[in-house]
Amino acid sequence: MKTFDIPTFECETGNYHTFCPISCVAWLYQKIEDSFFLVVGTKTRGYFLQNAPGVMIFAEPRYAMAELEEGDISAQLNDQKELERICLRVKRDRNPSVIIWIGTCTTEIIKMDLEGIAPKLEKQIGIPIVVARANGLDYAFTQGEDTVLAAMTHRCPEFNHHIMNQPKWDVTKLGVVEVSSNNKFFDETIKLNRCNLVLFGSLPSSVASQLNLELKRQSISVSGWLPSQKYNELPALGEGVYVCGVNPFLSRTATALMRRRKCQLIGAPFPIGPDGTRAWIEKICSVFNIKPNGLEEREDQIWKNLIDYLQITSGKSVFFMGDNLLEISLARFFIRCGMVVYEIGIPYMDRRYQAAELLLLQQTCKKMQKPMPRIVEKPDNYSQVQRMHELQPDLAITGMAHANPLEARNIDTKWSVEFTFAQIHGSVNARDVLELVTRPLRRRTDSVSDCRSLSRQTLNVQRS
Amino acid sequence: MKLAYWMYAGPAHIGTLRVASSFRNVHAIMHAPLGDDYFNVMRSMSERERDFTPVTASVVDRHVLARGSQEKVINNISRKDEEQHPDLIVLTPTCTSSILQEDLQNFVDRASLSSESDVILADVNYYRVNELQAADRTLEQIIRFYLDKAYKESTLDRSVTKTPSANIIGIFTLGFHNQHDCRELKRLLGELGIMVNQVIPEGGYLKRLKDLPKAWFNVVPYREVGLMAATFLEKDYGMPYISTTPMGISNTADFIVQIGKLVNVWAYALLEKRFNYKLYVDNQTKFVSQAAWFSKSIDCQNLAGKEAAIFGDTTHAALITKILVKEMGIRVSCSGTYCKHDAERFNEQVQGLCGEIVVTEDHTEIGDTIARIEPSAIFGTQMERHIGKRIDIPCGVISSPVHIQNFPLGYRPFLGYEGTNQIADLIYNSFNLGMEDHSPDVFGGHDTKGISTKALSTELSDINWTSEAESEPKKIPGFVRGKIRKNTELFAKQNNIPEITVDATYVAKEKSSL
């Protein structure tokens, strides 16, 4: 394995397996409590939603398909009338505060003017309609959330200096929890700075309040999150508002926030792992001219708590096949945990939005004296499997399509999608990430290790 | 446009892929955008498949939209040809390609000039057919392709086997208990002295397809997939087929009688003897299958007159209806199918057996029907299982669409004599068991209600939770909540924290090493 000082990027054929970006509705509808997601597309997409997010469909979800039929494709039916009929029914049955239309490949190809129809229908039925084009022609998996959040930035209220300058601006609404003074961990009196910081990225509410708390320890109050728990609680945006992303796949949202809403973007590594979380907080502090307080000790403490997992990870090798764009941050964290990363496959690499993360990756490799992994954009799964047969990594992080076949070929795997659904942000959740990663490594039993390979197929791969 | 939350049958290309990936050494290339290859996930997860699913995508992206696929599809075909040397590459259109209206046939023609594999374009119209119809059609298409090819190359051997033999058509991947059914069918045929010539498509080799006509007859166990292929073989090769599904005692007997008739036509001429299966059927019904005895037994008496609702694909829904009514004396208030294309046949089969017939693809309609008639048990798909959960009615799953639970590791056929045992178990276990049914009503239930913790011994905790902190564990999924609560309290005790605040819960989580 060659050692690279600077990251090198390769680009392959793009023939890889990932989820369709419309899968973002599966977690976004849960995050935004009063929303309804309407996926405008064909049966193919509906069947995907039904099968991939699994059992959730049975819980009467707040999402549905507007299934296109032959008459819609050949324009025998009027798109606007059809959508009106469906949205009125959704309004009657569920009465949501916002309907989010998810455009798919099909609406792209037949050039259905969702953005044009939405304002008209919005007026007619009296419910805001947000249009996001989360299609497989342009995007992969988690980028679906990016398109939805980018569309939502336009719906955020305008930031107003006067309101912000009033004292005690609805602290309760910010989700900031008052610190009880009798707690020995937080007995110092904290003065919260008024620094108009909006974080973007959809996280479970408990993780969001953990990150709020981390920042509050540095006297930084978070003035809002995009998305918020409720549609009508979207944060105010405008000149003078600083924004910072919590997930690596939100580059379009970042662009929209900067260009359309004139916000200041704080380019930081992402708060995944204790190292990432510390770097993230430090960067935010530096923007607000705050000297970070006790961060180093805190990080050390967290690492100390992880010692049992670190013994397992140390020296193990990992191969990321790449499907959800969290790969760079996770690889950086794993290298810091003493692992060797052979390859980081990634669907799409925004080098500007991820710049700070890439730099941290580079520094981490140097610090841990590990080789810089190769970063493969738009990977080719077939070639990756060939490379994996040569490298024989201890762990492959991959989609479900490849997991069982790789296990049968004696390569331990971790299902990558779990990282998108598990709580992985902030120092608090570092254990959870390592719990996920080490699970296949801990599971190794002696009983079956005698059978070298449990695959039935005699593959050419093994011969070559 | 149609508002849809759930669908019973998938899109057409899934059917094509199921057939293609069931054959050995066949590779399917989908003409589809990124993310549409979730078939691989379904197969790898549900079937716990050990091998890479032989399906790849020729990705449709912006460039393809602007300029057409051009050489891309052909390159992908020849690449697969070189990499994996499949016998056949099936180019699979999706909804996207049917809108783009690219000339995929042209790509196929060009690619087949240079590749060693055979290349065909799956002939399915996305907007006209569903998963099952597409599977049926693709299976026929592949068989026809190889028989025509053999005919042209004159390698077709039109003689029949010396001893009685049959092909089993329609066993394939992601089918409801198909693997077990196939094993049971093979055993049944074996006991009747009939050799299994080929099983198609599961595990079938394309090179051997030309020997299909050697069998004396074809068996099509499921109506949904295989009938087209069987009718083609009948028309062009004079092979008779049996489309009776050997599910339940009377249908299995009927199935064997039909086999007897077909076999004796040839047996008399070739072997100069006659097969008589009457004794076999008698023995099996009396001793191997417990179902006939079960329906006479006192257990089954309890079921008499109870009501059930049934929903599924044509084959399973119709036959389970028949079994419940004719073999167990249960009243079927409603029987339905989502196979709209086969509605006529379904009506014919369940006519007179059930209260009402529902043919619909809308799960809310069937849900409403079930809620209205309130049966004692439901037999349906995974969807009906969830409907049942909501309104507290037990449900046995008898048909696809399926879930990983419906791919049991143990032997669970629905067909043949062992199948009758399995079905009897399923039905009996779905209804509340005899005495259990009465006791709760009479004695007011045998469980003490209102137990607050799951632990058997209760320990009162003397630690206060602030109301905010109290709400914190509620954000955590239920199954780990208790543990986290316990850890937090333990942590508070160790650190002398009198009251648990939100902050303390996080600190506790950080410090806890569980």
From TrEMBL, chain A:
InterPro entries: LIPOR_BchN/ChlN, Nase/OxRdtase_comp1, Protochl_reductN. Its EC number is 1.3.7.7. Keywords: 4Fe-4S, ATP-binding, Chlorophyll biosynthesis, Chloroplast, Iron, Iron-sulfur, Metal-binding, Nucleotide-binding, Oxidoreductase, Photosynthesis, Plastid. It comes from the Eukaryota. It is found in: Plastid, Chloroplast. Transmembrane segments: none annotated. It catalyses: chlorophyllide a + oxidized 2[4Fe-4S]-[ferredoxin] + 2 ADP + 2 phosphate = protochlorophyllide a + reduced 2[4Fe-4S]-[ferredoxin] + 2 ATP + 2 H2O. GO terms for molecular function: 4 iron, 4 sulfur cluster binding; ATP binding; metal ion binding; oxidoreductase activity, acting on iron-sulfur proteins as donors; oxidoreductase activity, acting on the CH-CH group of donors, iron-sulfur protein as acceptor. GO terms for biological process: light-independent chlorophyll biosynthetic process; photosynthesis, dark reaction. One of its GO terms (cellular component) is chloroplast. Residues 20-409 form the Nitrogenase/oxidoreductase component domain. Component of the dark-operative protochlorophyllide reductase (DPOR) that uses Mg-ATP and reduced ferredoxin to reduce ring D of protochlorophyllide (Pchlide) to form chlorophyllide a (Chlide). This reaction is light-independent. The NB-protein (ChlN-ChlB) is the catalytic component of the complex. NCBIfam families: DPOR_bchN, PRK02842.1. Belongs to the BchN/ChlN family. Protochlorophyllide reductase is composed of three subunits; ChlL, ChlN and ChlB. Forms a heterotetramer of two ChlB and two ChlN subunits. This is Light-independent protochlorophyllide reductase subunit N. It comes from Platycerium bifurcatum. The gene is chlN.
Automatic annotation (TrEMBL), chain B:
Its cofactor is [4Fe-4S] cluster. GO terms for cellular component: chloroplast. It comes from the Eukaryota. GO terms for biological process: light-independent chlorophyll biosynthetic process; photosynthesis, dark reaction. The active site is at D299 (proton donor). The keyword 4Fe-4S applies. Pathway: Porphyrin-containing compound metabolism; chlorophyll biosynthesis (light-independent). The keyword Phosphoprotein does not apply. Residues 12-431 form the Nitrogenase/oxidoreductase component domain. It catalyses: chlorophyllide a + oxidized 2[4Fe-4S]-[ferredoxin] + 2 ADP + 2 phosphate = protochlorophyllide a + reduced 2[4Fe-4S]-[ferredoxin] + 2 ATP + 2 H2O. [4Fe-4S] cluster binds at D36. Component of the dark-operative protochlorophyllide reductase (DPOR) that uses Mg-ATP and reduced ferredoxin to reduce ring D of protochlorophyllide (Pchlide) to form chlorophyllide a (Chlide). This reaction is light-independent. The NB-protein (ChlN-ChlB) is the catalytic component of the complex. This is Light-independent protochlorophyllide reductase subunit B. It comes from Platycerium bifurcatum.
